[in-house]
Amino acid sequence: MTILEFSLLIWIGSFSAGLLGALTGLGGGVVIVPLLTSVFGVDIRYAVGASLVSVIATSLGAASTYIKKGYTNLRLGMFLEVATTIGAIAGAMIATLVSVKALTIVLAIVLIYSAYLSQRPRIEHIEDEVADPIANYLKLNGTYPTPDGVMSYQVHSVPMGFSVMLIAGVLSGLLGIGSGGFKVLAMDQAMRLPFKVSTTTSNFMIGVTAAASAGVYLARGYIDPGLSMPVMLGVLPGAFLGARILTGAKTQILRIIFSLVLVVMALKMVYNSLIGGV
């Protein structure tokens, strides 16, 4: 395979990852890392480095559209980003001390759990509920557009959401996946935000989290420009496209396909690690 063919195949895979990441809020890294390691045989640490770059590109590509349309809760995102940034730096520090096989097993578990998260039903809007006192004090409540007009929503369980975000940050720095699944879980299940607010705010946050840990990978030489460039060039237009179609798209079928892909990649990575090596 020539360098041009290699770069083109990575671009196609990265474009799909950016599209799915923008639509689901899980981040394109959940596809990028297993794609590079299982299909192209890239060392997982270099794959994580390229994935962190792609996660930043996904966030940049989707966040601007979501903010303009009024879905993203910027105040909540910046508050929760304190926890994810601390966790991301810690995860990046730990990553170089863990064996490649252990990293692969952990990533496979996260992939399967992300597939489970993407299939859980979520309530779009909850009416007449009292917000968390901390949310009121920090002014974290907000509104978002719906077919019936602009709806308001209340933020709940701020301490629990903050704790889950800390874990999400560690996973992001350790695995380079953006940990969007855990961020969506924290906002959608623990904090009970509308689904589209959760996914769009997650897309806004994953770029900041990835940037915090990408510096550590760059300093240690795990970001290869020749690998990261086609990944970023593929993810960015995919994220822009995903952001444009999210508002009117029915994503249930997409989530089913996405979950199947995640499970297959997770099983393949476990097999390669335990039987054939990554």
Summarize the structure.
The protein has 278 residues and is mainly α.
Name its key features.
278 residues; mainly alpha; two-stranded antiparallel sheet; 11 helices; 4% strand
What oligomeric state do these chains adopt? single chain
Largest sheet: 2 strands, antiparallel
Unreliable segments of 5+ consecutive residues: none
Shape: globular
Integer average pLDDT: 79
Q: Tell me the number of helical segments per DSSP (H or I, 4 or more residues long).
A: 11
What is the CA-CA span between the terminal residues? 19 Å
Rg (C-alpha, Å): 18 Å
Amount of helix: over 70%
DSSP strand content: under 5%
Please tally the β strands and state the result.
2
Pattern of helices and strands: HHHHHHEEHHHHH
Give the class from helix and strand content and strand pairing.
mainly alpha
Strand order of the largest sheet: 1-2
Q: What's the topology here?
A:
Blueprint: H1 3-24, H2 29-39, H3 44-69, H4 74-95, H5 100-119, H6 133-138, E1 142-146, E2 149-153, H7 158-175, H8 180-190, H9 195-219, H10 225-246, H11 252-276
Antiparallel strand pairs: 1-2
Helix pairs in contact: 1-2, 1-3, 1-10, 2-3, 2-11, 3-9, 3-10, 4-7, 4-9, 5-11, 7-8, 8-9
Characterization of the model:
The longest helix has 26 residues, at 44-69. The mean pLDDT is 79. The protein has helices at 3-24, 29-39, 44-69, 74-95, 100-119, 133-138, 158-175, 180-190, 195-219, 225-246, 252-276, and strands at 142-146, 149-153. The protein has a two-stranded antiparallel sheet with strand order 1-2. By secondary structure, it is mostly helical. It contains eleven helices and two strands. The protein is globular. Helix content is 75%, strand content 4%. It is found in: Cell membrane. Keywords: Cell membrane, Membrane, Transmembrane, Transmembrane helix, Transport. InterPro entries: TM_pro_TauE-like (IPR002781), TSUP (IPR052017).
